[in-house]
User: Which sequence fits this backbone?
């Protein structure tokens, strides 16, 4: 799973479809005044059961069932005979109507904090013996670890995205003529990648690469970037250093995507006529190939100090 919701849904589905239980659901422990348990995912025979639960995790009638007890105590809580166990009284009629005979709640604990509970229901009584308890407890521990890992990964990605945005703004403030160019290139590259059905994670890496693909121009004097006339050969050679400079600035950041390599290659061309390495065809990352097209189209369409925008028809003809 690549996101938290998918992880919870997959676990519940596996418990029901592969293990033969009647129903499984995951609830998170809210830190509100009522100490509410919020259902997050479920699989199996539910038929509106979760909507009627009204479960909390305080020491009250609706908090002394297996779910609330597991969250409050941090220990698994099994009800082996639902019809005869008074802890299940608030939900007895609904449970029996759906064929639940026994249930177990397992706390999801990570970093000393109980995140919520994994709840499993069976159609037979005494369904949760010592072996089953051990297996389900291990599963709950793994699930809690997965939840925290995904949250940490998401936080890291959010930080990286914010950092990229700040870097891009720095470059654009220095060169008003290309203000917004990087972001427009990124948006166009994303649209191309989506049309090509690249996966969402790869598209995110491409977007971040696009947002800072001209970062290396920070090394080029501003008067050259904004010059209205034709550049001299020496000045153009200086401009051509920007992919390498951008790569060198970014390569120390441990992105989960090939951001530095994409920046380095975004002026390579399929026939080997590009720079700085003269790569050909499949030697060029697909992200860099997409970015090259988006960059060319956006540059031709937009106004520059040395010429007006050429229009989308001319840009597509060039492509």
Assistant:
């Amino acid at each position: 799973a690549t996101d938290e919701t998918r992880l919870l849904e997959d676990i519940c589905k596996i418990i029901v479809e592969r293990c033969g239980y009647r129903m499984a659901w995951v609830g998170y422990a809210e830190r509100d005044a009522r100490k509410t348990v919020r259902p997050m995912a479920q699989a199996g025979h539910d038929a509106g059961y979760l909507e009627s639960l009204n479960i909390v995790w305080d020491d009250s009638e609706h908090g002394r069932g297996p779910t609330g007890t597991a969250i409050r105590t941090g220990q698994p809580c099994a009800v082996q005979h639902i019809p005869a166990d008074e802890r299940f009284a608030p939900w007895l009629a609904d449970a029996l109507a759906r064929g639940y005979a026994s249930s177990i709640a397992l706390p999801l604990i990570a970093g000393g904090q109980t995140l919520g509970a994994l709840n499993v229901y069976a159609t037979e009584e005494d369904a949760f013996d010592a072996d089953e308890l051990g297996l389900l407890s291990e599963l709950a521990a793994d699930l809690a670890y997965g939840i925290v890992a995904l949250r940490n990964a998401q936080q890291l990605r959010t930080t990286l995205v914010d950092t990229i945005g700040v870097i891009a703004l720095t470059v654009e403030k220095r060169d008003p003529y290309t203000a917004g160019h990087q972001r427009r290139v990124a948006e166009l590259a994303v649209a191309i990648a989506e049309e090509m059905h690249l996966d969402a994670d790869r598209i995110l890496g491409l977007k971040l690469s696009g947002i800072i693909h001209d970062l290396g121009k920070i090394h080029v004097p501003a008067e050259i970037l904004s010059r209205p006339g034709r550049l001299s050969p020496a000045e153009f050679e200086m401009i051509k250093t920007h992919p390498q400079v951008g790569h060198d600035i970014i390569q120390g950041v441990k992105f989960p995507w090939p951001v530095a390599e994409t920046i380095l290659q975004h002026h390579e061309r399929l026939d080997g006529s590009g720079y700085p390495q003269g790569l050909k065809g499949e030697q060029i990352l697909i992200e860099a190939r997409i970015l090259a097209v988006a960059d060319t189209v956006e540059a031709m369409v937009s106004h520059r100090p040395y010429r007006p925008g050429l229009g989308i028809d001319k840009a597509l003809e060039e492509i």
